[in-house]
Design brief:
single chain; 513 residues; mainly alpha; 21 helices; 3 strands; globular
Length: 513
């Protein structure tokens, strides 16, 4: 059943209004007012999104059209199960990220805070617009809006390095975006529609195999760039020059998840499993994902900078989603969608821990963090829990998603892909658990610990306590949710049920239990 309602549009618009208020008031008001606007908008957005979950779970969809862009193409919003998953993650994590951002910005005495909070709000509006877009054109508008809104966050420090990273980010995303748009125009010209449809609207054999492959990869490139699929990943490590809350936004809430979600929409709601399999695009995309998973893991092992190691971890983990989608099995598609949830909570925990460590101790290199758990036990414990979740250990959210992807690969007769995922889990342990060991080891165990080298062990590793509550509380919340979703995947908003519903609609039939 379709429910005509303005709620999807309001969920998009509320943070745009917040951004306008923040920019208008600027530095004319106290920081408390600006931060209050941010938190209020985050709570209202989440409430609007969450209020639509029960109807979507029951099989209904909310729909709202603002206007007709051109004949047959509407600027419209629709809340299907897949979009609801992404929207719930983005809106829910905006609340904790906003609280964390306030603590980080105040603790690090950051400049340009008005522009930061305004751009952050526009990014979240874009993410919800991407989630609820009813067709490719509406999707593209918000996808490009996300690109533009993220630039000032990447270039936040306004120095040469930040500006160069921002330009690199724009070059990658805008060029791929224009190729994406060209494919959208071609698809509309051939098929007369841009509306998303579970299972896709492109029929196998409707055009030649070469034309279909060209359209597919022009379109998929827009998602692959933001998702960091190699060799299109170069912008992502460079973007780590931004403040840590921005890194958390890039890696957990909006940008890379928008890329993975774009791959999902293109494969499952535009081309569909039948057409993708017919032209062989699924196999090509799967091997790109496999290569990315393995190479990024090996590169992560060599990085001493904590944020850089986490950045390459993200590149690999996002390709789990791409691989799960490419396998085209009901279980693997459901697992890929749930990995959007699992990875979001796990990776945002890791990045917020990295930010808390930097603000509290000014340490950024892993080799200088020996014995850090003596000073920051809660932060380090949450980092350890999230690291185990990223590796896919049972009772944590990462296990649920990866188990389903592996199960789907085996059921589709693709044991090599399952073996790659198991190997990747072992590699994740090899580049994250040593960090935890350093945290909980002796102060000089890392071999070059700043605290022991400077003779101030108590200052760095011992005596000044954990991060501030504004930073620590969000870390504990996201770590706890990662644990809860590992034990009870359907706790709260029933996101696993939504993933199963979406996969069932895409593949056409009740194969998932």
């Amino acid at each position: 059943m379709t429910i005509i309602s303005i709620r999807p549009f309001l969920a998009v618009a509320v943070s745009l209004l917040a951004a306008l208020l923040i920019l208008t008031l600027g530095n004319k008001v106290k920081p408390n007012v600006r931060e209050g606007i941010t938190l209020s908008a985050a709570v209202i957005k989440a409430a609007l999104v969450f209020s639509m979950v029960p109807a979507v779970l029951s099989g209904s969809e909310y729909y709202f059209c603002l206007w007709e862009i051109v004949d047959g193409i509407e600027f419209a919003f629709r809340t299907d199960a897949a979009g609801m998953i992404f929207a719930c993650v983005a809106s829910g994590l905006w609340i904790v990220t906003s609280i964390y951002s306030i603590g980080y910005m105040r603790g690090h005495h950051e400049k340009n805070q008005t522009g930061y909070f305004a751009a952050f709000a526009v990014c979240l509006s874009s993410a919800i617009g991407i989630s609820f877009a009813a067709n490719l054109v509406t999707f593209f508008i918000f996808y490009e809006m996300l690109t533009v809104a993220t630039y000032p966050l990447v270039a936040h420090y306004r120095d040469d390095k930040a500006k160069a990273s921002g330009r690199k980010y724009l070059a990658y995303t805008l060029i791929s975006g224009q190729l994406f748009f060209a494919a959208i125009v071609a698809v509309y010209a051939i098929y007369g529609t841009c509306d998303f449809k579970a299972g896709g609207f492109i029929e196998p054999g409707s055009v030649s195999m070469g034309i279909m492959l060209l359209l597919f990869f022009l379109m998929i490139g827009g998602g692959a760039v933001k998702a960091g699929v190699m060799p299109l990943h170069g912008w992502l490590p460079s973007a780590m020059v931004a403040p840590t809350p921005v890194s958390a936004l890039l890696h957990a809430v909006a940008v890379v998840k928008a890329g993975a979600f774009c791959v999902l929409r293109v494969v499952c709601y535009v081309f569909g499993p039948s057409a993708v399999s017919w032209c062989g695009a699924d196999r090509i995309l799967a091997w790109f994902a496999v290569t990315t998973i393995l190479l990024s893991s090996f590169i992560a092992m060599r990085k001493d900078n904590l944020k850089a190691r986490l950045a390459f971890s993200t590149i690999g983990q996002l390709s789990y989603i791409v691989l799960g989608i490419s396998v085209l099995a009901p279980y693997s598609i459901a697992g890929a969608m749930f990995h959007i949830v699992a990875h979001a909570f796990l990776k945002i925990t890791l990045f917020m821990c990295a930010g808390a460590i930097f603000v509290t101790t000014h340490l950024s290199e892993i080799s200088t963090m020996g014995g850090l758990a003596k000073r920051m036990p809660v932060t380090c414990a949450c980092f350890g829990l999230a690291s185990l979740g990223i590796a896919g250990l049972p009772l944590l959210a990462g296990f649920v998603s990866k188990f389903n992807i592996i199960r789907g690969a085996l059921l589709m007769g693709k044991p090599l892909f399952a073996a790659v995922l198991v190997a990747a889990a072992l590699l994740a342990i090899s580049y994250l658990i040593p960090v935890v060991r350093i945290f909980f080891g002796k102060a000089d165990e890392a071999g070059d610990c700043e605290c022991t080298a400077s003779g101030h062990a108590a200052d760095v590793c011992g005596g000044h306590g954990d991060a501030t509550p504004a930073m620590l509380i969000p870390i504990v919340i996201t770590a706890a949710v990662s644990l809860i979703l590992g034990i009870m995947p359907d706790a709260g908003l029933h996101l696993y049920d939504l993933a199963v519903m979406a996969a069932d609609a895409i593949t056409g039939g009740g194969a998932i239990v």
